[in-house]
Amino acid sequence: MAAKKKLFNKILIANRGEIACRVIRTAKALGIQTVAVYSDADRDALHVEQADEAVNIGPAPSAQSYLCADKIIAACKATKAQAVHPGYGFLSENAGFAKKLKRAGIAFIGPNVRAIEAMGDKIESKKLAEKAGVNVVPGHTKALKDYAEAKKVAKMIGYPVMLKASAGGGGKGMRVCASDEELKDAFVSTVREAKSSFGDDRVFIEKFIKNPRHIEIQVLADGFGNTVYLGERECSIQRRHQKVIEEAPSPFLDETTRAAMGAQAVALAQAVGYVSAGTVEFIVDTERNFYFLEMNTRLQVEHPVTELITGLDLVEQMIRIAAGEKLSFKQADVKLNGWAVEARIYAEDPLRGFLPSIGRLTRYRPPQGEGVRVDTGVYEGGEISMHYDPMIAKLVTYGADRSLAVQAMARALDGFYIRGVQHNISFLSALMNHTRFIEGRLSTGFIAEEYPDGFHASDIPHDDPSVLVAVAASLHLAYQTRAAKISGQVNGHEHRVAGAWTVLLGNRAVPVTVCPAQGGYDVTFHAKGFPKGVVEVRTDWGLGDCMFYGSVGGRAVTLQTDRLAVGFALRHAGVEVVARVVDARAAELMALMPKKRVADTSKLLLSPMPGLLLSVAVKPGQEVKAGEELAVIEAMKMENVLRAAQDGMIADVKAQPGDSLAVDQVIVTFQ
Predict the structure, then answer these.
(1) pLDDT tens digits, residue range 554-593?
(2) For the domain 138-207, what is the CATH superfamily, name and number?
(3) Number of Cβ atoms within 10 Å of the Cβ of 616
(4) pLDDT band (50, 70, 90) for residue 208
(5) pLDDT band at residue 3 using 50, 70 and 90 as cut-offs
(6) Could you check whether the bond before residue 657 is cis, i.e. omega within 30 degrees of 0?
(7) Residues near 389 by beta carbon (within 8 Å), at least 6 away in sequence
(8) How far, in Å, CA of 297 to CA of 15, rounded?
(9) H-helix or E-strand containing 155?
(10) Nearest 5°: CA angle at 145, between 281 and 238?
(11) Domain 604-670, CATH 3.30.365.10 — does that match?
């Protein structure tokens, strides 16, 4: 038997954040040394700390650092790295980069140039898919010249249609249009976004499938003609065409459809001589008809769910294939066991239209436990920068079946403690507890359909407020007992702690009596609509702990607690509330307190996020109509168009294109 080809001694990771840390983890397990690259903004980043060596490659903007192929190749030569793993994004699907590495004698841990070029162009990839016998979405496989041609093609195909950047990816350069009017605006913005994001302004059009699911097939191929598929991932929960929740397997596919999709994915990979890990993405209609969407010639963000149900390390497989090894298993050896769910934790505020949030992570405590995996590139005290993707971490949970995996995700989200920046955990928790999600009735329109007016606190009413009241009262008694002991030590006599309190939860005043008990506290409610009798709160929570683990009325609870001057800020099941604990008289007086008036900002256009002002479409004295474009801001790699909320006249323009804006900075004033 021939000996296996020796793996690399040292590899460089041409990326940052959680994916760089992810690759480093597997490389170390294989005994391979690692080299990190970093921009000036990432000097103190986690991936820099974890790698054996690190090389600075330039200023913060990715165009001057992470996207500079020559700088990365120079770093390889300086450190004698034999191979490069590109992660995802940046140069991961850049054929020019792969060519330069090959000329420099450096291995690319990814597919060959031919496959990258063929699949990187969405127009050409559709043509190749058709030739390989893969089902494709009806559409126009030529770049559109202008809006007039786009309008003609749309009428021929029939609305709704999807405009797509030929070189697009990551949810950018895509617009759904249901009319000529929508198409006109979308064509201009799609071309502009395609050019700024990918350096390629070609746009094409295809039929938009109603109520589709986004389901993708993971493939692996070696350099000896062996290609396998590793089941599917359901990625239908998306916002603005960017994935939010992924799971494997799909709750919708049957074995027949899975096998058919897998066979077509393998056929396409073989048609382009694909080598390494790749993903063939499909949209699937309500009758399980499936159509080729695109092929991603790289590792996917959501690859951990496939790893958990197959037991395979995809990064390890990529490294072994790049080093010249054959796949050590065949299609018949691939078994899917259990269920895995992934949630993307982003630095964004779901209650403000998912606007990005930047700043320092003053507290960062990810959940732990069996069946919980956290892939991250941040740490407590680290900074979320405006220069890069706002992902904080990927939270992945595993269970024997879908129900158990989803329940594990809900608990893990409750235990993910982040402070210093806004984050989307409340939204993710709402999804995990949503009846339609639990039942598996998914589509790419799920979020738009269930939250048509955006996400609001009212979308996540707590299923049992008594849990919040009981925990707040119990913690309050613990702090009052400590205060009494301290006071007794100072004054020489012990102070008696009262057990009767009123918990103010929103607009509700809930009188309770709380007493110490073995292993916790006993709480009695004195309000209608709450449990009768004693509710047992059992926990080993200690003073000062920000996390409450225990049970309330026999129900297992994970709850975040931040102590306030009066009461606590509590977070559970996506709900964030303030529970103030006071005596009965204080509760009466607080009910009489006047409400603070909200400032009138109706005559101001404020920047909803930190970012770069790309353009201002108005000038002083100009009349504008509701819905008309006022300005465009770029933040976290995405363009955000600000439009007039109502008819009016511009009084003044306070910011100019090229300005770096802060949150709530005035851009335009109205008369």
Answers:
(1) 999 999 999 998 899 999 999 999 999 999 998 888 888 8
(2) ATP-grasp fold, A domain (3.30.1490.20)
(3) 21
(4) confident
(5) very low
(6) no
(7) 17, 89, 636, 637
(8) 16
(9) helix 147-157
(10) 30
(11) no
Domains 138-207 and 215-459 alike in fold: no
CATH topology of domain 10-109: Rossmann fold (3.40.50)
Q: Which residues lie across from 116 on neighbouring strands?
A: none
CB contact set of 338 (below 8 Å; sequence gap of 6+): 308, 309, 398, 399, 400, 401, 405
- Can you tell me the distance from the alpha carbon of 35 to that of 10, in angstroms, rounded to the nearest whole number? 7
Q: Is 287 a catalytic residue?
A: no
Convert the pLDDT of each residue in 173-196 to its tens digit: 889 999 999 999 899 989 988 887
The phi and psi torsions of 345 (rounded to 5 degrees) equal: -90, 115
Tell whether domain 465-590 is in CATH 3.30.70.20.
Answer: no
What local confidence, expressed as pLDDT, does residue 510 receive? 96
Q: How far apart are CA 370 and CA 308, in angstroms?
A: 12
Per residue in 59-100, pLDDT (tens digit) is 999 999 999 999 999 999 999 999 999 999 999 999 999 999
Helices (H) and strands (E) in the chain, counts: 17, 39
Q: In sequence order, what are the residues at sequence separation of 6 or more whose Cβ sits closer than 8 angstroms to the Cβ of residue 485?
A: 494
Of residues 294, 307, 634, 639, which has the active-site annotation? 294
**Residues facing residue 247 across a β-bridge:** 234, 341
Q: In what order do the strands lie in the sheet with 611-616?
A: 638-643, 629-635, 611-616, 660-661
How confident is the model at residue 612, as a pLDDT? 87
Confidence of residue 490 (pLDDT cuts 50, 70, 90): low
User: Nearest-CA neighbor of 563 among 475, 485, 499?
Assistant: 475
Write down the domain spans for the chain: 10-109, 138-207, 215-459, 465-590, 604-670
Q: Given this model, what pLDDT does residue 596 score?
A: 78
Residue 356: name the closest of 314, 386, 323 by CA.
Answer: 386
Tell me what pLDDT residue 238 has. 96
215-459 CATH, one of 3.40.50.300, 3.80.30.20, 3.40.50.150, 3.30.470.20? 3.30.470.20
Q: Is the pTM of this model over 0.70?
A: yes
Q: Does the structure show a pLDDT above 80 at 1?
A: no
